[in-house]
Amino acid sequence: MSIGIADIAVYLPRARLERSTIAAAHAWAVPGLKGRGKGQIAAANWDEDSVTLAHAAARRLSGDITGLQFCSTSMPFADRSHASLLVEALQLDPTTATQDSGASARAGTSALLCALRSGQQNAVVVAAEKRLAKPASEQEIGQGDAGVAVHCGEPALAEFIDGDTLATDFVDHYRAADSDFDYAFEARWVRDEGYLADLPAMIPQLLSRNDLEAGDVAQFVINAPARVRARIAKQAGLSNAATDSAVDGQVGDAGCAAPLLMLAEALGRAADGDLLIVGGFGQGVDLMLLRATARRPTAFADALAAGASDDNYLRYLSHRGLLQMDWGKRAERDVRTAQSAYYRARDQVSGFVGGRCTACGTVQYPRTRACVNPDCRTFDTQVPHPFADLTGTVKSFTEDWQAYSPAPPLLYGNITFEGGANIFMQFTDTASGELGVGDSVSMQFRIKDIDRNRGFQRYFWKAVPVREH
Amino acid sequence: MAEGIRDKVAVIGMGCSSFGERWNMSAADLMVESFTEALGDAGIDRDDIEAAWLGVFFDEQNIGKSAIPMSNALRLNNVPVTRVENLCATGTEAFRGAVYAVASGAADIALALGVEKLKDTGFSGLPERTHGTFEDLWLPNSTAPGAFAQLASAYSHKHGIDMADLKRAMAHVSVKSHDNGLKNPKAHLQRAITEDDVLNAPPVAYPLGVLDCCGVSDGSACAIVARPEIAAQLGKDQIVGVKSVQLSISNGVEASHTSWDGAHTMTTRRASAKAYVEAGITDPKADLGMIEVHDCFSITELVVMEDLGLSEPGKAPADILEGRYDASGDIPCQIDGGLKCFGHPIGASGLRMLYEVYQQLLGRAGDRQLDRVDFGLTHNLGGIPNRNVASISILGGMN
């Protein structure tokens, strides 16, 4: 049975920070950044991290999932299975095979290559990044946040033909385990001794092994600067391959998620039968040779369109914890998590699974021993009822400037759901003045609280207005 | 329905501290201030008190748990003292305990005292609090103004009243209370404001501005209650009787079920309906001479006018703007200045409201004295509109 890409899904955070804003903020110190000030970077909200970005992408996949591999170099925990958290937040079967892998910008492609080579049907590789960068660094103005999920199996979108991998301890950049930031070596050396050292030879070898010509390749993508990518293609003889990507200018380098984002983009514009080469670079190289089908996924284009320009650099810094704002004494509130209480209720909290009364049919959240319907109130009649994919309606709301929120004002309100449920919820990704009673909202898995005293963060679901874009 | 407590208990003395930023006073000092006034008013000896209830809300600061701090501060004679807490109805809950003790015959004379020392928080507004280990995992990190502001958006939508028009009625609520508070030497805020002041005040939680919100104050209030025969024996010419004390507590419907419209307080409707029956009031619009309601925010007072059955649904804004609840109106509301001008030291507020009704019934309200009050009602709404405790107390003359 052939294997390939069955489905692919992309999530980009709503805010698209204008690079000109970043360059302007640093013009006093690093005027040279102005030359990099074109385009945008996708910038996660304060309540997004690599887990929520991965979740937002993976939940858009269709089809059965029997394995979930989470790839990131910006995982929030050093020792906690993010994949297991994702299994519960996605309400997948608990027997799903889970694994976290990171530590390299190649983590996403390595996991995908491994899954494709193993022939495992219904394995999902989800890569996501929200990396920190020092203000005024090249990384800051060049990096973006994203989540992308690839469903391996029946080759509905692309057939996997072959792949290659090479491990080299080429340290173009690194991040120490106890550091927030990358340390990068000179880009010219990385280009000459890294990207252009092995790839121009590896690509033709991969093609000839499969009786294909370099000129047959329609698209070549890899997490490399646009010009370097083009030079690799040229030196490898990919004379007909498109190498441009909107990821460069409109998303930013999304670390280990970048090559998979480019794969989603490439599939979206491929013609039936096009050959694609997807590369991953990071202490070595991964290559995947794919043949597109007639189906063109719109995941990347849709995610790219669902953004809003942002020119608030201070807010960007604050959302990443790089600016210590005075949030007042309300921010001192202790948000300790009783792990035992969370564990008991984790399907309700992570999976957003409420209850449905089998006696009267009322759906409700939270799921309790006695039905909330005033005309029912029967004990022990509730069965699990998922809310994650429901659309709610705003019954009431406020924009609270007094409550602590890293993104003031804190928006919250009563939201109703078909079947009888009312939930008092926070909103996110919603601007002041945007919300109205009666508006439709969708549900998003986000960080709820960050416990700085104990290095923990907890997640729950928030409401986001349903928008055209 | 049970026969109730109407006229089984008399209020024989009350006390109320000055409310405000009492920087140099501890909770114990505030308790002594209200208690000594009440004791003098009642004309009894401290050791005549056979049981006592203390209302305190915040554990996060203040005097800690149990009723021992009151037994210590007042040096009570080792009588039973119980600490109660029921959100913003805490003071009324203490009163209910004392009233029930006397009504049951368990005590001849009982004390209810509420106190809250909020101004040791170090910031404006109320401290945030935990909702418990499970609820904190999912409930919004709301504040009181943000939670009550929800009433405004839902009310505006439900009744098709433009938010700007609703805001004007809400502004009148605050202006009226400040006009009243100006005449009350115990009020925290004693200054007149205008509707423009309210409408142009800095935002707190849409659509509430700073002047839609009550103050935050330190304060204490207390009541001494006894069997009516004891009031007579003490030589009181006018005896104030307890006509009703009722509570209604949310059971999750407002928070979790679509049947609630978000534009009214369900528990206020339940508690007031029962209280009118217990008190023998058949026409509250005609019978109530004054009301002290839980005006934590202007919009709360507005919707409560309908929940108490005093304004028709959707008509509270018009009634308010017409002055129906002003000092000169049909049913004066917050004649003492309300939470708006007293602030809301949570444990004390319910008893502070009763203090004003008591003064008005006895004709002792000075510049604020109303012409005629047969029945006065107090109302607390603790918690937030979708998860709350409502209390109603009604006092009236017994002779």
Number of strand elements of chain A:
22
Mean pLDDT across every amino acid position of chain A: 97
User: Which CATH class of the largest domain in chain A?
Assistant: Alpha Beta
CA-atom Rg of chain A in angstroms: 23 Å
Task: Classify the helix fraction of chain A into a percent range.
Answer: 10-25%
* Spans where pLDDT lies below 50 across 5 or more residues of chain B: none
Distance between the termini of chain B: 26 Å
Report the oligomer.
heterodimer
| Poorly predicted spans of chain A | none
Here the CATH topology of the largest domain in chain A equals Peroxisomal Thiolase, Chain A, domain 1
What distance lies between the first and last C-alpha atoms of chain A, to the nearest angstrom? 39 Å
Whole-number tally of structural domains of chain A: 2
CATH class of the largest domain in chain B: Alpha Beta
Number of domains of chain B: 2
* Mean pLDDT metric of chain B: 96
In short:
The complex is a heterodimer of chains A (469) and B (399). Chain A is of the alpha+beta class.
Describe the structure.
The complex is a heterodimer of chains A (469) and B (399). Chain A is an alpha+beta fold. Chain A has two domains: 4-295, Peroxisomal Thiolase, Chain A, domain 1 (3-Layer(aba) Sandwich), CATH 3.40.47.10; 337-352 and 387-465, OB fold (Dihydrolipoamide Acetyltransferase, E2P). Helix content of chain A is 25%, strand content 29%. Chain A has helices spanning 19-25, 50-58, 82-89, 107-118, 138-142, 187-209, 226-235, 246-251, 258-269, 299-305, 313-319, 339-344, 346-349; strands at residues 4-11, 15-18, 40-43, 67-71, 97-101, 123-129, 146-153, 158-167, 173-174, 183-184, 217-222, 275-281, 284-292, 308-310, 353-357, 363-364, 382-386, 392-400, 410-417, 421-426, 440-451, 456-465. Chain A starts with a strand and ends with a strand. The mean pLDDT of chain A is 97. Helices cover 36% and strands 18% of the residues of chain B. Chain B has helices at residues 27-42, 68-74, 90-104, 144-159, 163-181, 195-199, 228-233, 253-256, 266-279, 284-287, 298-307, 316-321, 338-342, 346-361, and strands at 10-16, 51-55, 81-84, 109-116, 203-205, 208-209, 219-226, 240-249, 288-292, 375-384, 387-397. In chain B, a hairpin with a 2-residue loop joins strand 10 and strand 11 (387-397). Chain B is globular. Chains A and B meet through helix 12, strand 18, strand 19, strand 20 and strand 22 of A and helix 4, strand 5 and helix 8 of B.
